[in-house]
Structure formats: structure tokens, C-alpha cells
Amino acid sequence: MLEFNNKDMNLLILLSEIATIEQLARNKLDKALPKDLNISSFSVLNHFSGSKAEKTPLQLARSFHVTKGAMTNTLNKLEKLGYIHIRPDWNDARKKLISVSQSGVDARNYAIKSIKPILDEIIQKTELVTKKSFLGDLRSFRETIEKNKV
Questions:
Q1: Model's pTM, two decimal places?
Q2: 37, 46, 53, 130 from 43: Cα distances, Å
Q3: DSSP of 39-97, one letter per residue?
Q4: Phi, psi (rounded to 5 degrees) for 64
């Protein structure tokens, strides 16, 4: 039988807690988001809020750690809603470039207003998420996993 030491068990417990937190947060946010947006769609719109630079579907897929097919599905939904623009890359016809439309910016801002009460409630009930050391530790943990060092 495989046995785990305390360090292994602590890591398994930590991963389980993170997975549970992620699921709980997704459920709460999905319920609060406007009907035409889900977490994936909102996340893409929110991604563009930090930079208006065009991105390829592959760049976005890599940013979100999803397959290009999954990202293409999300982008197609956003395009149908008029929240993004998809155009050919004039330098490489095989590629497409994605940018956010003004209605996408507006939808993202409306979604932020919709989820803000939930975020405020969480922050009010716990000071943990405002501690820089905790956020730094979480970021380091994520970066380590991304670099396959775990």
C-alpha cells in the first residue's frame, strides 16, 4: 500500500481545499453574472480589460490553460453576442486576431457590478484575501505548478 508522509498529505489537503474554493467561487459567480455570460466568457472579457492589444486564440488558450478548441468555442459565443471582434491576421492568413468591442467592455463592466456584492461579502468576512503575504504565497504556488516544479 502506498503511504504518504505529512508533507505529501498537506499538499493533497491544500489541493483539495483549492479545488473546493474554486468550485464554490464558480457557483456563486455563475449565479451572479448576467445570463449571457458564464465564467469563461467573463474571464476572456476581463482579460482584455488590462490590455486592449489583439490576441490570437492560441495566446488566449495558453493564458487560460485551456485547449485551443475550448477557447475557440468561448470566442465564437462572445462574437455572436457582439462582445469581441475576430479578424484575419493580415501577416499570416492562417491566424485570427481577437479584440474586445465596446459592447464587450460594457458587458464586462456590468458583470463586475453584478459580482461586486459577492466579492465585498467575502472580503468583509475574511481579511485573509487582503494580506499580501497570502496572495504572494498563492501566486508562488501557482507559478511553481505552471513551471511543472511540483
A1: 0.79
A2: 9, 5, 16, 21
A3: HHHHHHHHHHHS----B-HHHHHHHHT--HHHHHHHHHHHHHTTSEEEEEETTEEEEEE
A4: -100, 0
Q: Which candidate, 127, 56, 147, places its Cα nearest to that of 96?
A: 56
* Spatial separation of the C-alpha atoms in residues 8 and 14, rounded to whole Å: 10
CA–CA separation, 146 and 15 (whole Å): 14
How many CA atoms, within 13 angstroms, populate the side-chain half-sphere of residue 83?
26
Q: How many angstroms separate the CA atoms of 49 and 83, rounded?
A: 12
Consecutive sets of 10 residues in the chain, 150 residues long: mean pLDDT of each? Answer: 78 89 89 92 93 92 94 97 95 93 96 91 74 80 76
> What is the per-residue pLDDT for 126?
76
